[in-house]
Amino acid sequence: MTARDDDLARLEDVWRTRRGWRFFSSVNNTNIGLLYIGTALLFFILAGVLGLLMRVQLAVPDNGFLGAETYNQVFTMHGSVMMFLFAIPIVEAIAVYLLPNMLGARDLPFPRLSAYAFWAYAIGGLAFFCTLFAGLAPDGGWFMYPPLTGLKYSPGLNADFWLLGIGFIEISAIAGAIELIVGILFTRAPGMTLGRMPVYAWAMLVVGVMIVFAFPAVIAGTALLELERAFDWPFFIADRGGDPLLWQHLFWFFGHPEVYIIFLPAAGMVSTIVPTLAGTPLVARRAIIAALVGVGVFSFGLWAHHMFTAGLGTLEMGFVSAASMAVAVPTAIQVFAWIATLWKGKVEANAPTLFLLGFMAIFVLGGLTGVMVAVIPFDWQVHDTYFVVAHFHYVLIGGMVFPVFAALYYWLPLVNGNRLSEGLARWVFGLMFVGFNVAFFPMHVTGLLGMPRRVYTYAADLGWNGMNMLSTVGAFTFALGVALLAWDAWRSLRRPERPVGNPWNAPTLEWLPSEDYGNRSIPRIDSIDPLWDRPELVREVEEGGHYLPRTATGARETIATSPVAAAPRYVLILPGDSWLPLIAAAGTAAFFLLLTVKLHVLAWICGVAAIAAVLGWMWQADRASTVADVDIGHGESIPVGATGTASHAWWAAVVLLVVDLSIFACFAFAYVHVTMRLTVCPPPGATLPSQELALTSAGLLVLGSLLVWFATRAVGTRRLPWFVLAALGCVLASCAVDVGGLLDAGLDPTATAWGAGVAALASYQGLHVVTLAVLAPYLAARAWCGLLGERSRAALDTIALVWHMTTLQGIAGMLVVRLVPLLMA
Length: 825
What we know:
Blueprint: H1 3-15, H2 29-58, H3 68-103, H4 111-130, H5 158-186, H6 199-231, H7 244-278, H8 285-298, H9 314-326, H10 328-344, H11 351-374, H12 376-382, H13 386-411, H14 413-416, H15 422-448, H16 465-493, H17 530-533, H18 537-542, E1 556-561, E2 568-574, H19 580-596, H20 600-620, E3 629-633, E4 636-639, H21 648-675, H22 691-712, H23 719-745, H24 753-784, H25 794-824
Antiparallel strand pairs: 1-2, 3-4
C-alpha cells in the first residue's frame, strides 16, 4: 500500500458512518442533513393533509365535515406545522447538508450541535403533532393572540402545548443559526474570500443573523404568555394593567422577518441554480448580495405591517407602510437579475427550470399583492379576509416551496447519483402550478367579496360557493403533484448508487467528488466559479493535491480560515459520532412536554438528563492536541486549535450572547410597554427594594466578574477553581439580595402587569444564576482534572463571557426597573 493509499484509508476510517442502529449516533453533516430534510418534508406532507381537510370543510356551505372545535385545531396545526416545523427547518436542513461541501469544508464547526438541533426538532415536533390525536392540539391560531389564548378563554392544555412546544423548537432553530453563522465565517476553503463566497452562503449568513435577532422575540413572548397561564402574571390582561397588543408586537417582530427568513434561502438557491441552468455567470452578483442584506435590514421595520387595524398612531403606521413598500426594491433587484441571467444564457426546459419559472411568476404576483396590503386604506378593507390568505400563500408557497422543489430536482443526484424523472417532472410541475393557482387565486376574489379568515363554515347565500369549491379542487390537484414527486423521489433513492459526477455542469464546489469525509483534499479557491474556471480542480482534489489530504491528528478535522480573506488560521478538530446529542435532545423535548401535562418530577428528571448529556459532550471537547503545528500542504504549516478571540468557539459564544441579550431586550420592552400604560408608577400598593439593596446586589455581581477575570489570568495554577467558586458565591449572594428585597417590598406579580414585568426581569436574571451554578462547578472540575491549559481554555473563555453578560444584564435590569418610573414622573 502506498503512502497515499494509507492516508486515504485513515481518512475513511476516521469519518466512516456507522451502520445499523448506530447510524443514529452520527453527527456528520450529510447524515444529519438528510435526516433533517426528510423530517421537514414529512411535516410538509402532514400539514398539507390538514390543509386538505380544511378545504373539504369549506368546499360547500353549511358543511358538517369538521366541527368548529376540530376545525380550529386543524387550522391552528396547519399553520403552526407549516411555519415552525416545515418552513424554517427545511431551509436550515438544506444548508446543513449543502454548505460544508459548497464552502470546501469537511463539516460544520459544531457537528454535535447540529445533531442536537435536529433531534430536538424531530422528537419535539412529532410529539407536538400527535396532540391532534388526543384532542389537545392548540386551537388559538398559529399566531395565538391573547386574550383568547389566556387561561380565561382557553382553560385546557391546548395552548400550553403550543407555547412550550414552539418555544423549544425555536431554540433548535437558534442552535442551527449559530452553527451556520460560525461555519460560513470560519470554515470556508482557503482563498474563498467573502467576495468569492457563493450567493447561497451569503443568503444563509444573512438568515442566520436574522434568526439571532428575530427569534428571541417569540421565545420571550411565549415565555410571558406561559407565565400568565401558569402563574397568573397578567402581562396581557387589560383589567390588571396588561395589554394584548404587547403579544402582537413581540410576535410580529419575529413573524414578519420570518417571512424573509424563509424567502432568502430560497432566493440563494435560485441564485445558485440559475447560472448553472443558463450556463453563464450570475448577472449583477454584487447587487444581489447587497439586496439580500437590504431585505434582511428592511424586514425588521415591517412588524406592524400586520397591525394597521390595531389602533397604532398615524405616524408609526406611515413609517411601516413605507418600509413595506421599500422592501420590494431589493427583492425586485434579485428577480430582474435572475431574468437577465436566463436571457443571457441558453436554458433547457428541464425540471429545475420549470419550477424556477413557476416560482418567479407566483412570487411576483404575491409581491404585488403585498404592496397592495402595504397601502393602509386598502389593508383596512381586506384585513382578516381571504385576500390576505391568498397573498400569504402566494408569497410563501411561491417564494419558498417552488424553489425548494427546484432544489430537490437539482441537488438530489448528490445523494446517490440518480436524477429524478424528467418526464414525470413535467406532470409534477403542471399539477402543482395549475393546482396552486386554481386553489389560491380565487381566494383573492372571495376576500374582496368579504369572506373572513378562520371561519369553519359559511351561509349559502353569500356568493362564495363556487370560488370555494374551485379552491378545493385546486388544492387536491396541487396535492396530487406533491404525491407524484414523493413517489418519484422514493423510487430514485431506492436505485443502486451511481457516481455523482457533475450532471448540470455546475460551477460550485458541492459537485466535487465527496465521501463521508467530504472532499479528498480541501481546495484553494481563486475565483467565483471555480469548477468553470479550473476544470482540472476535480482531478487535483480527488488525487489529494490540495490542503489536508490526510488526518493530521488522527481525528476529524477541517481548516479554520479568517472571516474576510479566508486565509488558513488553524486546524479545527471536530468531534466524532456520539449518542449524547440524541440523549440531550430527547431530554429537552421531554422536559417541556412533560411540564405541559403537569408531570413535574418526571420533567425535571429529563431536564437534568439533558443537562448532563450536554455537559458530557462539552467535557469531551476542548482537549489540547498532542501536535502543536501540522503541515497542511502547499508548504504551509498552521497550529492545531486556537484560543480567545481567534477561536471559532469564542465567536459562537458571542452569537449566543447576542441571542441572550435580545431576549432580555424583549423582556425589558414588555416592562416598558406595560409601564407606559400607567398613570402612576409604581402603581398604588407596589414598591421596589431600597436603592441600598440594589447597589449591594450590583456590587456583588461586579465582584464576581472581577474574580472570573482573575481566573482567566490564573490558567495552570491551583487558584483558578477557587476564583471561580468564589465568583459563584458572589452571584448567589447577589441573587439572594434581589429575592429578599423583592419579598420585603411585597412585590406581587399577580396583582398588576407592572409587578409581573419586574418579576420577569428578575426571573430571567435568576435563570442566568442557575446556569452559572451549573457551569462554575463544571469549570472547577476541569481545572482540578488538569483539562484547562493555555492551549485548552475554550471552556474558560466562553464561560467567562457568559459570566460577564450575566453581570451586565443584572445591572441593566435594575436600571430599567428604576429609571423608567423616574422618567415617567
